[in-house]
Specification:
- The chain has 342 residues and is an alpha+beta fold.
- It has 2 domains: 188 residues, 2-Layer Sandwich (Fructose-1,6-Bisphosphatase, Chain A, domain 1), CATH 3.30.540.10; 135 residues, D-Maltodextrin-Binding Protein, domain 2 (3-Layer(aba) Sandwich).
- 30% of the residues lie in helices and 21% in strands.
- The protein is built from 9 helices and 15 strands.
- Helix 1 packs antiparallel against helix 2, helix 2 runs antiparallel to helix 4 and helix 6 crosses helix 9.
- The radius of gyration is 20 Å and the shape is globular.
- Bound molecules: 2,5-anhydro-1,6-di-O-phosphono-D-glucitol (AHG) and manganese (II) ion (MN) (2 copies).
- One manganese (II) ion (MN) binds next to strand 3.
C-alpha cells in the first residue's frame, strides 16, 4: 500500500511548474517523456541476461529478427519518445556522430536534449548497474529548427540535468536548478516516487573512485594526490577507501549520497596527445550540474566543468567530481605539481 504522503514524479514536476507562473508546460512534458523512457529502458535492461537465450546483437532472435544492442535500443527509446513531443529543437546522443534534427513533420520546441542512452554498457553482461544521463539547454539560435550552436553551450546554462541508474532499483535523479531530487521506481505500479528529496553531498567524504589501472598514465599531481589518499598518516590511519564500479552513473550516484570523489583524470599515455575519456555533453556537464546543485564541486582539474564551452558534440574532458573539499584538494595537487604543463 502506498503511503498517503507518497509524491509521484508527475506531481512533483507539476508542483514545480506551478511555482513558475510564466511556464508553458514544455519542461514538464520533457521530464515526463524522459521518465517514461527510463521506465521503458528499465524493462529492457531487466531482460538483459536473457539475451543469450533470446538472441544477442548481430544474431537473430526466436522470431528471426535482428536483436539490437541495448545502447542502441535505449537510444531509440529516448529519440522516439521525444521527436514528436514538440518540446525539443534538436538532440544529440553519445551513440550518434551527428546532431539529431527533429523530423520536419513535427513541431520544434525551445529546448535541446543531449543524452548518454546507456552509460556503463560494457558492464551489462556482468549484471552491474548501468544508467542514462541527460542534459537540457534552452535554444539560443535564431531559426525555427535547432542547430549545433544550441547544443554547444556551457554546462552552467543547463536548464535541467540528471541521470537514471538501473541498479538494484531504478532511481531517477535530476535538478532543474533548485536542488537535487531523487525518485525511485516502484515497479508494481510503474511510478517514480520521491525517495531522496533535496539531496546534499557531504562536504568531505571517505571514498575515492578512479580506475587505478591507469595510475602510470596520470600526471604527477594526480599520482601524488592518490598516493596521499592511500598512504596511512603518522598515526597509522588511512581515512580513504576505494570503490570503482566502472559505470559513471553508479559511481557518481554513490559519491553524491556518501561523499568523496569520483575522477577520470587526463591520460598521458601518449604525452603528445593527452586525453580525457568522459564526454563533456553527455557525461561531464550533466553530472557536474547535479553535483554542484547538491553542494559539491566539479572540475577538469583546473577549471569548473560548468564554465567550459564545448567546441564539439563529442568533446572529451578529464573530470573530478564530488565533495567540495575533496575536489578542491585534488585541484591543489594539480596546481602544485602540474602547473608548468598546463
Ligand atoms: P559508456 O558505457 O557510455 O561508453 O561509458 C563508459 C564510461 C563510464 O561509464 C565509466 O566511468 C568509464 O567509461 C569507465 O572507463 P574505464 O573502463 O576506462 O575505467
Ligand atoms: Mn557513458
Ligand atoms: Mn553510453
Amino acid at each position: 500500500m502506498l503511503n498517503k504522503n507518497a509524491i509521484t514524479i508527475e506531481r512533483h514536476i507539476i508542483d514545480q511548474q506551478e511555482r513558475h507562473p510564466g511556464a508553458t508546460g514544455a519542461l514538464t512534458r520533457l521530464l515526463h517523456q524522459i521518465a517514461l523512457s527510463s521506465k521503458m529502458i528499465t524493462h529492457e535492461v531487466r531482460r538483459a541476461g536473457l539475451l543469450d537465450i533470446l538472441g544477442d546483437a548481430g544474431h537473430t532472435n526466436v522470431q528471426d529478427e535482428d536483436v539490437q544492442k541495448l545502447d542502441v535500443i535505449a537510444d531509440e527509446v529516448i529519440y522516439r519518445n521525444l521527436d514528436h513531443a514538440g518540446v525539443l529543437c534538436c538532440m544529440a546522443s553519445e551513440e550518434r556522430a551527428k546532431m539529431i534534427p527533429i523530423p520536419s513533420q513535427f513541431d520544434c520546441g525551445k529546448y535541446t536534449l543531449a543524452f548518454d542512452p546507456l552509460d556503463g554498457s560494457t558492464n551489462i553482461d556482468a549484471n552491474v548497474s548501468v544508467g542514462t544521463i541527460f542534459s537540457v539547454h534552452r535554444k539560443i539560435s535564431p531559426g525555427e529548427r535547432g542547430t549545433e550552436e544550441d547544443l554547444l553551450q556551457p554546462g552552467y546554462k543547463q536548464v535541467v540535468a540528471g541521470y537514471v541508474v538501473y541498479g538494484s532499483s531504478t532511481i531517477m535523479v535530476y535538478t532543474a536548478g533548485h536542488g537535487v531530487q531523487g525518485f525511485t521506481l516502484e515497479p508494481s505500479i510503474g511510478e517514480f516516487l520521491l525517495s531522496h528529496p533535496n539531496i546534499r553531498i557531504p562536504k568531505r567524504g571517505k571514498i575515492f573512485s578512479v580506475n587505478m589501472g591507469n595510475y602510470h598514465y596520470w600526471t604527477k599531481g594526480v599520482q601524488k594526490y592518490v598516493d596521499y589518499l592511500t598512504t596511512p598518516d603518522k598515526e597509522g590511519k588511512k581515512p580513504y577507501t576505494s570503490r570503482y564500479i566502472g559505470s559513471m552513473v553508479a559511481d557518481v550516484h554513490r559519491t553524491l549520497l556518501y561523499g568523496g570523489i569520483f575522477m577520470y583524470p587526463l591520460d598521458m599515455k601518449d604525452p603528445k596527445k593527452p586525453r580525457g575519456k568522459l564526454r563533456m555533453l553527455y557525461e561531464a556537464a550533466p553530472m557536474a550540474k547535479v553535483i554542484e546543485q547538491a553542494g559539491g564541486l566539479a572540475t577538469n582539474g583546473t577549471e569548473s566543468l560548468l564554465e567550459i564551452v564545448p567546441r564539439d558534440l563529442h568533446e572529451r574532458t578529464p573530470l573530478f567530481v564530488g565533495s567540495y573539499d575533496d575536489v578542491m584538494e585534488v585541484g591543489e595537487y594539480i596546481k602544485k605539481y602540474d602547473a608548468e604543463k598546463a
